[in-house]
Amino acid sequence: VMLQRMLADLDTNSRGTSYPSTLRCILLGxxxxxxxxxxxxxxxxxxxxxxxxLTESCSQAVTLSPSEAMRKIGSAGRPLLPVQLRILxxxxxxSPGEPGEILLKGPTITPSYxxxxxxxxxxxxxxxxxxxxxxxxxxxxxLYVLDRRADLIISxxxxxxxxxxxxxxxxxxxxxxxxxxxxxxxxxxxxxxxFVVLKSGSMVTTEELLSYTAQKLARYKQPRAIYFxxxxxxxxxxxxxxxxLPRLLQTLHx
Length: 254
Known about the structure:
The protein is α+β, with helices and mostly antiparallel strands. The chain folds into two domains: 2-148, Rossmann fold; 152-253, GMP Synthetase, Chain A, domain 3. 22% of the residues lie in helices and 31% in strands.
């Protein structure tokens, strides 16, 4: 969110010019970065470097080298020494490109949750910490973070990642921000629905956005419905609160 605001300020105040060469790096974390945002930074030669980590990993665990930022756009990078990383899919090591849960191990990873034995038992096994995040490794060993496992939508047996749909919606020139969650469906179990905040002065219809996503997403990933709202729920640090989106739907209906 902060980087998006910086880009908006650049457009408003700098008339499309790039940032000065003295700006060496912007470290970007907090969740999967939307491709439109990364591409906008690349066009402006803004040196954005993605990173991945959690409180349990003393912040950074994986970071993309600045020299790889353009070649590996969208990747969080490789594990920082001495962190080990692996991807498990159905309790087996995932193949390159195959999504699964991200596990971390190393001296910078907390060994337990203080006073929470049940949470520790769920998250730690044989020294490996199960992050609850979904991602994959490419053939070069670079990590790509897809989404939180808790936010995963399973529609007709297929995995649907809200962040992917949000990224597509945010690539539309009229869309400022998007949030996606699952909605119960008698036929498919769950279907994705989307909430959209439009850019100031922009106009677009629900039908136009549905048509836009239909051109870029597989059928089972396409939002069943899109709702317009003035704002989306966020944490104090600016992260989207997807678990609050169903409540937002109730508010919009009322």
